[in-house]
Amino acid sequence: MIRTPRLLLRPARDDDLLPLHAIFSDPETMRYWDRPANTDIAQTRAFLDAFMKADPTTRYEFILDLDGKCVGKAGVWDKPEVGFILNRAHWGKGLVREAMEAILPGAFAAFPDCEALTAEVDPRNTRSCRLLEVLGFVIERIGKQDFLYGGTEWCDTAYYRLPRPAIQPPGVMR
Protein backbone atom coordinates (compact mmCIF):
# COMPACT_ATOMS: atom_id res chain seq x y z
CA MET A 1 0.00 0.00 0.00
CA ILE A 2 1.05 3.55 -0.67
CA ARG A 3 -0.26 6.67 1.04
CA THR A 4 -0.39 10.03 -0.71
CA PRO A 5 -1.73 13.28 0.74
CA ARG A 6 -5.31 12.36 -0.22
CA LEU A 7 -5.30 8.73 -1.32
CA LEU A 8 -4.60 5.25 -0.10
CA LEU A 9 -3.32 3.15 -3.01
CA ARG A 10 -4.23 -0.38 -2.07
CA PRO A 11 -4.94 -3.83 -3.49
CA ALA A 12 -8.38 -4.55 -4.90
CA ARG A 13 -10.94 -6.31 -2.74
CA ASP A 14 -14.45 -7.69 -3.16
CA ASP A 15 -16.22 -4.60 -1.88
CA ASP A 16 -14.76 -2.61 -4.80
CA LEU A 17 -17.25 -4.28 -7.15
CA LEU A 18 -20.00 -1.65 -7.03
CA PRO A 19 -17.70 1.40 -7.18
CA LEU A 20 -15.76 -0.16 -10.07
CA HIS A 21 -19.00 -1.02 -11.83
CA ALA A 22 -20.07 2.62 -11.52
CA ILE A 23 -16.86 3.55 -13.35
CA PHE A 24 -16.84 0.78 -15.97
CA SER A 25 -20.54 1.12 -16.81
CA ASP A 26 -20.36 4.89 -17.42
CA PRO A 27 -20.18 5.55 -21.19
CA GLU A 28 -18.50 8.95 -20.71
CA THR A 29 -15.78 7.52 -18.47
CA MET A 30 -15.24 4.62 -20.87
CA ARG A 31 -15.22 6.78 -24.03
CA TYR A 32 -11.46 6.41 -24.52
CA TRP A 33 -10.91 3.12 -22.70
CA ASP A 34 -10.01 -0.02 -24.66
CA ARG A 35 -13.61 -1.26 -24.72
CA PRO A 36 -17.14 0.12 -24.43
CA ALA A 37 -18.89 0.57 -21.09
CA ASN A 38 -19.91 -2.58 -19.25
CA THR A 39 -23.59 -3.41 -19.55
CA ASP A 40 -23.67 -6.14 -16.92
CA ILE A 41 -22.14 -6.29 -13.46
CA ALA A 42 -20.81 -9.76 -14.33
CA GLN A 43 -18.34 -8.05 -16.70
CA THR A 44 -17.06 -5.90 -13.85
CA ARG A 45 -16.95 -8.95 -11.55
CA ALA A 46 -14.73 -10.76 -14.07
CA PHE A 47 -12.45 -7.71 -14.28
CA LEU A 48 -12.23 -7.44 -10.48
CA ASP A 49 -11.52 -11.16 -10.08
CA ALA A 50 -8.67 -10.92 -12.61
CA PHE A 51 -7.36 -7.76 -10.92
CA MET A 52 -7.27 -9.49 -7.52
CA LYS A 53 -5.48 -12.56 -8.96
CA ALA A 54 -3.01 -10.58 -11.08
CA ASP A 55 0.58 -11.76 -11.41
CA PRO A 56 2.82 -9.36 -9.44
CA THR A 57 5.67 -10.01 -11.87
CA THR A 58 3.73 -8.20 -14.61
CA ARG A 59 1.42 -5.88 -12.64
CA TYR A 60 1.89 -3.05 -10.16
CA GLU A 61 -1.55 -1.52 -9.90
CA PHE A 62 -3.73 -0.18 -7.18
CA ILE A 63 -7.22 0.84 -6.25
CA LEU A 64 -7.44 4.59 -5.63
CA ASP A 65 -9.13 4.84 -2.25
CA LEU A 66 -10.39 8.30 -1.26
CA ASP A 67 -11.83 8.57 2.24
CA GLY A 68 -12.42 4.81 2.38
CA LYS A 69 -14.09 4.54 -1.03
CA CYS A 70 -12.80 3.17 -4.33
CA VAL A 71 -12.77 6.02 -6.88
CA GLY A 72 -10.56 4.45 -9.55
CA LYS A 73 -7.50 2.39 -10.33
CA ALA A 74 -4.02 3.14 -11.61
CA GLY A 75 -0.65 1.54 -12.18
CA VAL A 76 1.22 -0.84 -14.44
CA TRP A 77 -1.40 -3.28 -15.66
CA ASP A 78 0.61 -5.13 -18.30
CA LYS A 79 4.35 -4.58 -17.89
CA PRO A 80 5.48 -2.12 -19.11
CA GLU A 81 2.16 -0.39 -19.91
CA VAL A 82 0.56 2.01 -17.45
CA GLY A 83 -3.11 2.81 -17.24
CA PHE A 84 -5.55 4.67 -15.06
CA ILE A 85 -9.26 5.32 -14.79
CA LEU A 86 -11.20 7.49 -12.37
CA ASN A 87 -14.84 7.92 -11.46
CA ARG A 88 -16.09 10.94 -13.42
CA ALA A 89 -17.27 12.66 -10.22
CA HIS A 90 -13.59 13.09 -9.30
CA TRP A 91 -12.18 14.33 -12.63
CA GLY A 92 -10.17 17.54 -12.58
CA LYS A 93 -9.02 17.26 -8.96
CA GLY A 94 -5.48 15.98 -9.61
CA LEU A 95 -6.11 12.58 -8.02
CA VAL A 96 -4.68 10.49 -10.86
CA ARG A 97 -1.59 12.70 -11.03
CA GLU A 98 -1.13 12.31 -7.28
CA ALA A 99 -1.50 8.54 -7.58
CA MET A 100 0.79 8.15 -10.58
CA GLU A 101 3.52 10.33 -9.04
CA ALA A 102 3.54 7.85 -6.15
CA ILE A 103 3.24 4.74 -8.33
CA LEU A 104 5.89 5.40 -10.99
CA PRO A 105 8.99 5.16 -8.73
CA GLY A 106 7.65 1.95 -7.21
CA ALA A 107 6.94 0.52 -10.64
CA PHE A 108 10.54 1.00 -11.72
CA ALA A 109 11.68 -0.57 -8.43
CA ALA A 110 9.26 -3.50 -8.87
CA PHE A 111 10.48 -4.15 -12.42
CA PRO A 112 14.27 -3.68 -12.35
CA ASP A 113 14.62 -5.07 -15.89
CA CYS A 114 12.14 -2.55 -17.32
CA GLU A 115 13.94 0.09 -19.40
CA ALA A 116 10.85 2.26 -19.81
CA LEU A 117 7.16 2.43 -19.01
CA THR A 118 4.69 2.98 -21.83
CA ALA A 119 1.15 4.18 -22.37
CA GLU A 120 -1.25 3.89 -25.30
CA VAL A 121 -3.92 6.58 -25.49
CA ASP A 122 -6.57 7.75 -27.93
CA PRO A 123 -5.16 11.20 -28.82
CA ARG A 124 -8.66 12.68 -28.49
CA ASN A 125 -8.33 11.96 -24.76
CA THR A 126 -6.50 15.23 -24.21
CA ARG A 127 -6.69 15.06 -20.41
CA SER A 128 -4.84 11.74 -20.28
CA CYS A 129 -2.31 12.88 -22.89
CA ARG A 130 -1.62 16.06 -20.92
CA LEU A 131 -1.27 14.10 -17.67
CA LEU A 132 1.22 11.67 -19.20
CA GLU A 133 3.30 14.59 -20.47
CA VAL A 134 3.25 16.26 -17.02
CA LEU A 135 4.47 12.95 -15.57
CA GLY A 136 7.41 12.99 -18.00
CA PHE A 137 6.14 10.62 -20.69
CA VAL A 138 7.15 11.56 -24.23
CA ILE A 139 5.06 10.81 -27.28
CA GLU A 140 6.92 8.49 -29.62
CA ARG A 141 4.44 8.25 -32.45
CA ILE A 142 0.80 8.37 -33.47
CA GLY A 143 -0.61 5.22 -35.01
CA LYS A 144 -3.26 6.10 -37.58
CA GLN A 145 -6.52 4.17 -37.37
CA ASP A 146 -4.72 1.26 -35.69
CA PHE A 147 -7.18 0.37 -32.91
CA LEU A 148 -10.67 -1.03 -33.43
CA TYR A 149 -12.79 0.29 -30.54
CA GLY A 150 -15.76 -1.85 -29.64
CA GLY A 151 -15.64 -3.57 -33.01
CA THR A 152 -17.12 -0.51 -34.71
CA GLU A 153 -14.74 2.48 -34.73
CA TRP A 154 -11.16 2.68 -35.96
CA CYS A 155 -9.16 5.08 -33.78
CA ASP A 156 -5.70 6.58 -33.74
CA THR A 157 -3.33 5.70 -30.88
CA ALA A 158 -0.74 7.95 -29.25
CA TYR A 159 2.21 5.87 -28.03
CA TYR A 160 4.03 7.33 -25.01
CA ARG A 161 7.24 6.29 -23.26
CA LEU A 162 8.85 7.16 -19.92
CA PRO A 163 12.48 5.99 -19.70
CA ARG A 164 13.82 4.61 -16.43
CA PRO A 165 15.30 7.51 -14.43
CA ALA A 166 19.11 7.66 -14.45
CA ILE A 167 19.12 8.01 -10.66
CA GLN A 168 16.81 5.43 -9.18
CA PRO A 169 14.73 6.70 -6.25
CA PRO A 170 14.31 4.40 -3.26
CA GLY A 171 11.87 1.59 -4.01
CA VAL A 172 8.35 1.61 -2.69
CA MET A 173 7.33 -1.58 -0.96
CA ARG A 174 3.81 -2.93 -1.31
UniProtKB/TrEMBL annotation:
GO MF term set: acyltransferase activity, transferring groups other than amino-acyl groups
Cleaved signal peptide residues: none
Bilayer-crossing regions: none
N-acetyltransferase domain location: 7-165
UniProt-listed SUPFAM superfamilies: Acyl-CoA N-acyltransferases (Nat) (SSF55729)
Gene3D superfamilies in alphabetical order: 3.40.630.30
Name of the protein described by the UniProt record: GNAT family N-acetyltransferase
Species this chain originates from: Sedimentitalea arenosa
